[in-house]
Design brief:
Blueprint: H1 16-38, H2 49-67, H3 71-74, H4 83-108, E1 126-129, E2 135-140, E3 146-150, H5 156-159, H6 162-167
Antiparallel strand pairs: 1-2, 2-3
C-alpha cells in the first residue's frame, strides 16, 4: 500500500486521548513562548517612548516655520531697480528686440506682424510696422515717456546699450 501524503506523520497516534493531550501541550508551549516575547525583561529599559515626543516637537517647529517664518529665515528683500536702471534695461530690451526682428526679417523675408512671432518677447514692448522694411519698437520709460526705436533712423541712445550686449556674446 502506498502513502499519497507528501508529509507522512512521524508517530502514529491512534488514541483520541493521546492526540488531544499532544495538541494541548503544543498549544500551551506556543502560549508560553508568546508570553515571553510580549513582556520585556526587567533589566532592559523601555525603548521608543522618546520617538513620540520628538515627532511632536518636529511637528510644532515645522508648523511654526510654515505659518510664521522667523526673520532670520526670510532673508532680506530683493532690491528694486532704480528708475535709471530700469530705463537702461528698457533701452537694452528694445535694442535686443530690434536685433530679433532683423534676424526674423532676414530668415523669413518679411517683418513679423507681432512680437509674439519672435522666439523671445520682452514684456511691455510693442511693434509698429510702417511698411515691409521699416518698423518701430516702442516702450515706456519709468517717467511715462515713450521710447521709440525706429529702424529707419536708430537713435544713439540705443547704441550705448549695444556694446555691452555685444561684449556678452550677441552679434
Amino acid at each position: 500500500m502506498t502513502n499519497t501524503d507528501s508529509d507522512p506523520p512521524v508517530h502514529r497516534i491512534s488514541r483520541v486521548e493521546d492526540r488531544e493531550r499532544l495538541l494541548a501541550e503544543t498549544l500551551a508551549h506556543a502560549e508560553a513562548q508568546e508570553a515571553l516575547y510580549k513582556v520585556l525583561p526587567a533589566d532592559e529599559p523601555e525603548r521608543g517612548r522618546w520617538k513620540a515626543s520628538l515627532a511632536a516637537l518636529i511637528l510644532v517647529v515645522a508648523l511654526w516655520i510654515a505659518l510664521a517664518p522667523p526673520r532670520w529665515m526670510a532673508g532680506t528683500e530683493a532690491p528694486f531697480p532704480t528708475d535709471g536702471e530700469r530705463d537702461r534695461g528698457l533701452r537694452a530690451a528694445i535694442w535686443m528686440q530690434a536685433r530679433q526682428v532683423e534676424v526674423f526679417r532676414l530668415r523669413e523675408g518679411r517683418l513679423p506682424e507681432h512680437l509674439s512671432e519672435l522666439p523671445v518677447q520682452m514684456p511691455g514692448l510693442t511693434l509698429v510696422r510702417s511698411n515691409n522694411r521699416v518698423y518701430q519698437i516702442r516702450g515706456r520709460l519709468a517717467d511715462g515717456e515713450l521710447l521709440v526705436f525706429d529702424s529707419a533712423q536708430p537713435s544713439p541712445a540705443f547704441d550705448a546699450a549695444a556694446p555691452r550686449i555685444r561684449a556678452q556674446g550677441t552679434p
